[in-house]
Design brief:
- 26% of the residues lie in helices and 40% in strands.
- By secondary structure, the chain is α+β, with helices and mostly antiparallel strands.
- It folds into two domains: 12-94, Sandwich (ATP Synthase, domain 1), CATH 2.60.15.10; 98-139, no CATH class.
- A five-stranded mixed sheet has the order 2-1-9-8-5, with no helix packed on it. A five-stranded antiparallel sheet has the order 4-3-6-7-10.
- A hairpin with a 2-residue loop joins strand 3 (30-35) and strand 4 (38-42).
- Helix 1 (99-114) runs antiparallel to helix 2.
- The radius of gyration is 18 Å and the shape is elongated.
């Protein structure tokens, strides 16, 4: 009779750092990152990779089978066979996002944009804020 074997998925260190603090530093089975050219998954022994990231959700799959979703507003991901580091411009747990407040913020930003068409720098700044706010709203869906 063949003996049953159990296989465990190898893990790696995942770190998510914002300008304010280290938000996550733990072992992961897999992480999905919103790369600038599209989402990409990271597993243990991943080839080295450096990527810019767009506003979106980082999904962390933990060794115990759980998941965590963290919104990031852009930044960089640095991956090697034993570590995935995300350096985020802004990061917040998706569960902490308030969709109704974000929708009000978006409306106010769009109104500000309508009144700022003559200032290209202000337009660019407001458009970036609008893009991040829309991505936060989408993360709450």
């Amino acid at each position: 009779m063949a003996e049953a074997t159990t296989t465990t998925t190898p893990t790696f260190q995942f770190e998510l750092v914002s300008p304010e603090k280290i938000l996550v530093s733990e072992q992961a089975k897999m992480v999905v990152v919103p790369g600038e050219a599209g989402d990409f998954g990271v597993l243990a022994q991943h080839s080295p990779l450096l990527s810019s990231i767009r506003p979106g959700v980082v999904t962390l799959f933990t060794p115990d089978g759980g998941t965590r979703r963290i919104f990031v507003a852009g930044g960089f991901a640095d991956v090697n066979p034993t570590l995935c580091s995300v350096l985020a411009e802004e990061a917040v747990n998706v569960d902490d996002l308030d969709r109704s407040k974000l929708e009000i913020d978006l409306k106010n930003l769009e109104e500000d944009l309508d009144g700022s068409k003559s200032d290209p720098l202000k337009v660019a700044s407001l458009q970036a804020q609008i893009d991040v706010t829309r991505a936060k709203i989408q993360a709450t869906a």
